[in-house]
Every structure is written in C-alpha cells, then in structure tokens.
C-alpha cells in the first residue's frame, strides 16, 4: 500500500513538473526571499554578539554554546514576512493566528510557523492526456490555471498540499468537461470550456480557501490518423457548398433567360434591339467587318419604321 501511494505521489509530482511548452524567458523580475534570510542571520549575529560582549571576561566553550543558543532563539522568535506572504502560526499544535506581512514574533517552542502562504496569482500548467470526448476520440490537451489563496488558514488546515490538490482537481475537471462534448465542438467551444472548468474548480476549491481566477486552454492535439480524415471531410464539405452555390447560380441564370425569352416573344422590337446590341458588341471587341448570319441582317430590315414611334 505504501509503495502504491508512493508511486501515485511520484506521478503527481512528475506531472506537476512536466513542462507544457518552452517557458518564457525570465527578465529578472522574479521576487526573492533573500531579505528574510538575511534578517534572520542578522538577528542571530546580534544575539550572539550581545551575549559574548556581556560575558567576555568569562570566555569559554560553554559561553560560546550559550551565545549561539541565544542567537538561535532570537532568530526563531523575531521574523519578517514579505508583502505578498502570510504565515500560519500554530500554538501547541492548534491554529492561533495569521501573521504578516512585516515583522512578527513567535514564542520559542510554544509557537511555530506551520506554513508560508504566497497570496499572489499562481500559474499552474496542467494536461489531460488521451481525454475522451463524447464520441470517444482521445485528445491531448494543454491548459493553464491561474489561481490564488485568499484564506491561508483553510488552505493549510483543510487540505494537506493545496498546490498538488488543485493540480489534480484541474486535470479531473478538464477531463469531465471534454467528455461532455464531441470532437467537432472542442475547437469552437474553447471559451465555454474555460468557463465551465473554472466553475467546477471554484466549487471544489472554495472550501480550501482558494479562488480560481481563470482557466485557459492552450493547445488541443488531435490524433494524426484523424487529422487526414477531418481534412478530407472539410474539403468535401467545401466542394459540396461550391457545387450547391453553382447550381443556385445556374438556376437563377436559367430563370432570367426564361423571363427574357418571354419578353422577346411578346415584343419583336425588343428582339431586334437585342440582335443589334450583339452585333455592336461583336464589332467593338473584334473590330473590322463582321460576317453575320442572315438572322442578324433581318434586324436591320425596316429600321426606319422601327425607329419611328
């Protein structure tokens, strides 16, 4: 049982560390806790120096040990927390208070800092490998989760490892959301999927003191054997639409020809005008003398009578 749990934890840690894509280049803007460590070292050195200065005349090894112990106790008692950090303080194993930011004090042995909680927005990449859609198509999906801890007490008391818990919850929510839709809807419903996953995670993590800011799907990988089939299907659909459009145009043109034929059949003068227009356009395009059939020549018969009202 222990080996099984250990394998699950190793898999979760490996998944949490697995990069989705190349990380953006760092510009040196990442914050540091070096100031906190330097402050603790300075407090230790001050306590050590004060004890040594007070009992300098009785210099001995036990005195050095006592001075180091005093410096260590002071370093454990006087601490600082950065602006973005909150410290969960336990007294005799029970939750006592939330300390920080800035200077705070601890009672040695009686109190201790159980956790340092970062309250900034945290970015967590996660994946869903071979997530099945409603039509049983396996997809590999990469997404990014933006979240923050608004209640450090609940985040530390209600769940063992809130960072790993929200990673698992995000992956499960993504699989559930993908399993409700078909493959054709995955690409067109990205924004709806983001909102749906966010709502599912909010419901799960609210009791943990965690708020999900947003969920963004970065990439959807379709199996290669389906990419060709989908490409052929899209091509066939476009060809079908083109043929339907061409048929509609042919139908409209044929209806126009029928209407024109009805007009020409009812009015001989309209037919003669059309004939003359065709001859004019032919001469204009080709130039020179045009040898026209006898039917064209008939259009010029009685032209004087045609022009008269």
UniProtKB/TrEMBL annotation:
Residues 1-17 have a biased composition (Basic and acidic residues). The keyword Membrane applies. The keyword Transmembrane helix applies. Gene3D superfamilies: 6.10.250.2090, Band 7 domain (3.30.479.30). Keywords: Membrane, Transmembrane, Transmembrane helix. This is Band 7 domain-containing protein. It comes from Adlercreutzia hattorii. GO terms for cellular component: plasma membrane; side of membrane. Residues 1-30 are annotated as: Disordered. Belongs to the band 7/mec-2 family. InterPro entries: Band-7_stomatin-like, Band_7, Band_7/SPFH_dom_sf, Stomatin_HflK_fam. Pfam families: Band_7 (PF01145). The chain crosses the membrane at residues 36-56, 62-81. PANTHER family: AT06885P-RELATED, BAND 7 PROTEIN-RELATED. Residues 76-234 form the Band domain.
């Amino acid at each position: 049982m222990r080996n099984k749990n250990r394998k699950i934890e190793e898999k979760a840690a490996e998944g949490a560390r697995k990069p989705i894509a190349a990380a953006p280049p760092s510009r040196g803007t990442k914050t540091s806790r070096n100031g906190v460590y330097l402050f603790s070292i300075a407090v230790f050195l001050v306590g050590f120096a004060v004890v040594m200065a007070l009992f300098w005349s009785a210099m001995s090894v036990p005195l050095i040990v006592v001075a180091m112990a005093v410096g260590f106790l002071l370093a454990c008692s006087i601490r600082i927390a950065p602006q973005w950090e909150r410290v969960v303080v336990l007294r005799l194993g029970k939750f006592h208070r939330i300390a920080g930011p800035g200077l705070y004090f601890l009672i040695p042995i009686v109190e201790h800092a159980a956790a340092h909680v970062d309250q900034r927005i945290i970015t967590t990449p996660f994946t869903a490998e071979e997530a099945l859609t409603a039509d049983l198509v396996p997809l590999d999906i990469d997404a990014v989760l933006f979240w923050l801890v608004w209640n450090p007490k609940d985040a530390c008391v209600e769940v063992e490892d809130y960072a790993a818990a929200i990673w698992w919850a995000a992956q499960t929510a993504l699989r559930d959301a993908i399993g409700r839709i078909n493959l054709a809807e995955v690409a067109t419903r990205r924004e709806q999927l983001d909102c749906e996953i966010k709502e599912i995670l909010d419901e799960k993590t609210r009791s943990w003191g965690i708020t999900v800011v947003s969920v963004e799907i970065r990439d959807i990988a379709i199996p290669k054997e389906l990419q060709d089939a989908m490409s052929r299907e899209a091509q066939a659909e476009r060809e079908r639409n083109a043929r339907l459009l061409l048929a509609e145009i042919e139908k409209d043109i044929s209806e126009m020809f029928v209407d024109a034929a009805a007009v020409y059949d009812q009015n001989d003068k309209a037919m003669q005008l059309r004939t003359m227009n065709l001859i004019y356009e032919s001469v204009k395009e080709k130039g020179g003398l045009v040898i026209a059939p006898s039917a064209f020549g008939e259009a010029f018969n009685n032209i004087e009578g045609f022009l008269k009202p």
